[in-house]
Design brief:
The complex is a heterodimer. By secondary structure, chain A is an alpha/beta fold. Chain A is 41% helix and 12% strand. In chain A, the strands form 2 sheets. In chain A, strands 1-2-3-7-6 form a 5-stranded parallel β-sheet, with helices on both faces. Chain A has a two-stranded antiparallel sheet with strand order 4-5. The two termini of chain A are 26 Å apart. Chain B has 2 domains: 13-175, Rossmann fold; 191-316, Rossmann fold (3-Layer(aba) Sandwich). Chain B is 38% helix and 20% strand. The longest helix of chain B is centred in the middle third of the chain and has 14 residues, at 207-220. Chain B is globular and about 65 Å long. The chains are: A alpha/beta, B alpha/beta. At the A-B interface, helix 4 and helix 5 of A face helix 3 and helix 5 of B.
């Protein structure tokens, strides 16, 4: 059974819960790509709990919407969502990246239900989404394909091959989200490889583009509602302007923390901030 | 030398056997989809396109995207046949083939057209290391057919074969060597075409024609050659190869490809661990080739029947004294 989509206040509350869980898992398992997960968690929460028709009790049902995570480094953000939604035993989270654990540091298809594709090598998953959306249309199926990308992986040329193809084939059943947190491995994207203006690039490629604060839940929901309702024959793109490490002040805007190891003190500081910030959202 | 009943023994050719085979496959199977990369006529998928436009997708000259779009379809249950020149599918899209096709054992058939030195466009278009690149990928099936009969038979066989395949494809006027009434292509099966006692010639792809000629020339010189044709380089039919090699005690491999990583290497891997013996590889020797006609290039780079004969004489000469 597909769960009831969450309302905007419920989504805000859910994203706060998941943020705390991300910090706990990153702390207890020795480290994670935490700052990226914190930047993207609002966008991913909105998509998974409201827009994508996913069925945790029947994760492979043919009529499900496809939720594809492209940057495999965001794995932990997807794992906490899937665990929370009942795709697998939440206790598995504490085995994150242990030898032999299905919860690998980067997402890999076939490890746990709900992980549809492998994303460790950047810039490939939009192409997979194009293939899935073309197949759905060819077979007359009405499920949708959602692709979550990062801004760093927009450097890869293949992303733009896929962007051209999605528009060329008129894939209105494909919606992509870019988590634009402004950072890539070697530093700010503006210094390493500037791909802005991101929205204009996708517009020029023929996409129907919305841009908003990607850490502001009601703005995200409104933008995705517009893209869902738009009809037409263009693929949809939400450029989400986010803050890397959102919710943890010492991470926000920092050049450090591409990979974050969180000691007990850092964890407590992070959780204290999150509880303070969360008091008015429930 | 007795001619195998599997061979036609003529110089017949067939025009565009792949184009016809793909159309017939489309008629037989609704789950087959065809992807192209701006080389519709050049890769002989235009017939399928005209007949089944709803199952044909031209993604433009963008092979990396092409391969991953095909994987997306395969994960949904389609059987994609993916086309470009062999160089572009293997060199340009190697990581996509590795990470999304091979790693997921995706049911994708990669069809690389114009094998080895048969391209006229020079080294950018001569797939001379494609077999090597594909053979090294875990779980990848690699096929280099010899003629129109194999092409006609392997197309439906590939659709029935679950898992990733790379196949070299010849186009336009293709020799017809095997007798379609008696020959039966099977994935992973080599065929024994002659059983002389002195040396075993092992061929793949278009080199079968030269290998056949070489066995005749060797017979004229009093050297009895066995001939094994290996159209599936991976998984390799070790049983058929070892049976013939052990009987003759010396081996020549012949491939339209670098001698590194392709048939010569595959056979060497088997022989060195299971039955060490003299092995002389025929193929490109650690070099790119210049542009030219196939006839010119095969002569210049040592891939003719004469080169196979010379290699066989060397191999026989290296056999230990009885």
């Amino acid at each position: 059974m597909v769960p009831t989509p969450l309302t905007t206040p419920e989504l805000e509350h859910k994203a706060s819960e998941l943020r705390r869980l991300l910090v706990e898992v990153a702390h207890r398992t020795g480290g994670a790509y935490l700052a990226q997960a914190l930047s993207g968690i609002d966008l991913m929460t909105a998509l998974h709990y409201r827009f994508a028709r996913c069925d945790p009790g029947d994760p492979d049902r043919p009529d499900r919407d496809r939720f594809l995570l492209s940057p495999g480094h965001y794995a932990l953000a997807l794992y906490v969502i899937l665990a929370d939604r009942g795709y697998f035993d939440p206790d598995l989270l504490w085995t994150f990246k242990d030898n032999g654990s299905p919860l690998e540091l980067a997402t890999h298809r076939g490890t746990v239900p709900g992980v549809e594709v492998s994303g460790g090598s950047l810039g490939q998953v939009l192409s997979l989404g194009v293939g899935m959306a073309l197949h759905a249309r060819m077979r007359g199926r009405d499920h949708r394909v959602f692709v979550v990308m990062s801004d760093g992986e927009q450097d890869e040329g293949q992303v733009w091959e896929a962007a051209a193809a999605a528009a060329h084939f008129g894939l209105s059943n494909l919606t992509a989200v870019v988590d634009c947190n402004g950072f890539q491995v070697d530093g700010p994207t503006s210094e390493v490889m500037n791909m802005e203006p991101m929205g204009d690039k996708y517009r020029a490629f023929g996409w129907d583009v919305r841009e908003c604060d990607g850490n502001h839940m009601s703005a995200v929901v409104d933008a995705l509602e517009e893209l869902s309702a738009k009809g037409g024959d263009r693929p949809g793109m939400l450029v989400g302007r986010t803050v890397r490490g959102k919710g943890v002040s010492y991470m926000e805007g920092s050049r450090d923390f591409h990979y974050a190891r969180i000691d007990a003190d850092m964890k407590d500081r992070a959780l204290d901030e999150m509880f303070e910030g969360d008091t008015d959202t429930v | 030398m007795a001619r195998s009943h599997l061979l036609l023994g003529t110089t017949a050719t067939v025009q565009g056997p792949y184009r016809e085979a793909l159309i017939r496959l489309g008629e037989a199977r609704g789950d087959v989809v065809v992807l192209g990369a701006d080389l519709g006529n050049s890769t002989e998928i235009d017939g399928f396109r005209a007949r089944f436009p709803e199952r044909f997708f031209n993604v433009g000259a963008a092979e990396q995207n092409e391969v991953d779009v095909a994987v997306g379809m395969a994960l949904e249950g389609a059987v994609p046949f993916v086309h470009s020149f062999g160089v572009f599918l293997t060199r340009r899209a190697y990581e996509q083939v590795c990470v999304q096709v091979a790693m997921h054992e995706a049911n994708v058939k990669l069809v690389g057209v114009i094998p080895g030195l048969t391209s006229r466009l020079g080294p950018t278009h001569q797939a001379i290391e494609d077999l090597s690149l594909m053979r090294t990928l875990p779980g990848m099936t690699v096929i280099d057919p010899a003629d129109a009969t194999e092409i006609a038979q392997l197309v439906p066989a590939l659709a029935d074969h679950q898992g990733p395949v790379y196949v070299r494809m010849m186009r336009r006027e293709v020799p017809a060597l095997f007798d379609p009434r008696t020959y039966r292509f099977a994935v992973g099966k080599a065929v024994s075409l002659a059983d002389g006692p002195d040396v075993t010639v092992i061929s793949c792809g278009v080199m079968l024609a030269n290998a056949l000629e070489a066995t005749r020339e060797l017979a004229d010189r009093g050297i009895g050659a066995s001939l094994v044709h290996v159209s599936t380089l991976k998984p390799l039919d070790e049983k058929t190869i070892l049976e013939s090699a052990r009987r003759t005690g010396a081996v020549v491999t012949a491939e339209n490809h670098l001698v590194v990583g392709g048939l010569g290497s595959a056979v060497a891997e088997v022989l060195s661990s299971r039955s060490p013996m003299p092995l002389e590889p025929v193929g490109l020797d650690d070099t790119f080739a210049v542009p030219g006609t196939p006839e010119y290039l095969f002569d210049r780079y040592g891939l003719t029947s004469r080169h196979i004969v010379d290699a066989a004489i060397r191999a026989v000469g290296r056999k230990p004294e009885p």
